[in-house]
Amino acid sequence: MLNKVPEVTLAFWIIKILSTTVGETGADYLAVHVGLGTLVTDVITLTLLLLSLSAQFAAREYIPWRYWLAVVLISVVGTQITDFLTDELEVSLYVSTAAFAVCLAGVFAIWYSIERTLSIHSIDTTRREAFYWLAILFTFALGTAAGDLATEALSMGFTIGVLAFGALIAATYVAYRLGAGEVLTFWIAYILTRPLGASLGDLLSQSQNYGGLGLGTIVTSIVFLAVIVALVTWVSVTGFDRPAPAGPAECG
């Protein structure tokens, strides 16, 4: 197979952040505003995710629509996992954040022990792709828990949450430019974009009484989905984010 993950460009990060925001607002919209409830919403989105991942695994190369559809759906499911633990099982956000961090570290440890690389430039076998999507799922769950912990349990609020996580991502980029490892800084930034997107989604959609701008989940989800569709269409047509062939060092 060819590499199944797009090149990391500005478009990649914009779509990723917008996807995380849609995951936050989309899950709330289906469960609360549509009235499906947590269980029905979980079953529907999990089924859609499994179908999407089946199509993604069946491809032999990176196909933008398949890849980003899987990212959006895994964002919703990752959000629902954390929300289920918090709202239904009343698991502390401190506990869930720590637990997801341990799970993600475990995935990385097993992935590296078998493949000797965590680089997204070498997702060119089914096993590596399985590790990749499992890691992505835990980054979304961890990011949701960490974001809720910061904005709710620690009372940072949505605006400060956006600024704080944005600053952490900027610091990660500076570290990368100063010579920090590409793989390490990528995964740190990938995790941080989840609470950034969640805080942004809550800031835009939540009522002004709760510190938001009051745009609502419907408007926020539709606007962000429209931008995602436009960007994915653009990269599909231009091939702007088509992954480059892996070099010897990346394959190792």
Descriptive notes:
This protein has 252 residues and is mainly α. It has one domain. It has nine helices and no strands. The protein has helices spanning 10-33, 37-58, 64-88, 93-115, 126-153, 158-177, 182-205, 216-238, 248-251. The radius of gyration is 18 Å and the shape is globular. The two termini are 16 Å apart. This is Membrane-anchored protein. Keywords: Membrane, Transmembrane, Transmembrane helix. InterPro entries: DUF347 (IPR007136). The chain crosses the membrane at residues 30-53, 65-85, 91-114, 130-147, 153-176, 183-201, 213-235. It holds the Pfam family DUF347.
Describe the structure concisely for a colleague.
This protein is mainly alpha-helical. It is 77% helix and 0% strand.
Please give the number of β-strands: 0
Radius of gyration, Cα only, in angstroms?
A: 18 Å
pLDDT < 50 stretches: 247-252
Distance between the termini: 16 Å
Q: What number of domains?
A: 1
- The helicity comes to over 70%
Give the rounded overall mean pLDDT: 87
Q: What summary fits the major beta sheet?
A: none
Count of DSSP-assigned helices = 9
Structural class comes to: mainly alpha
Strand content: under 5%
User: What string, H for helix and E for strand, traces the elements in order?
Assistant: HHHHHHHHH
Instruction: Report the principal-axis shape.
Output: globular
